[in-house]
Amino acid sequence: MSMVLGEPGADGLSGVVGVLRAWQYEGAPAQLHPGDLGWFWRFGAEATAAAVRTWSRDGQVLAVGLLDDPMLLRLTIAPAARQDEELARRLAEDMTEPDRGVLPGGKASVDTPMGVRVRQLLEQQGWSAGEPWTPLRRDLTEPVQDPGVRIEVIGPEQAHVRAAVQRASFDGSTFTDERWHAMAAALPYADARCLVAYDDRGDAVAAVTVWSAGPGRPGLLEPMGVHREHRGHGYGRAITVAAAAALRELGSSSANVCTPSSNTGAVATYRSAGFRRLPEIRDLTRTGPPVP
Question: Which CATH superfamily is domain 138-277 in?
Answer without folding.
Answer: Gcn5-related N-acetyltransferase (GNAT) (3.40.630.30)
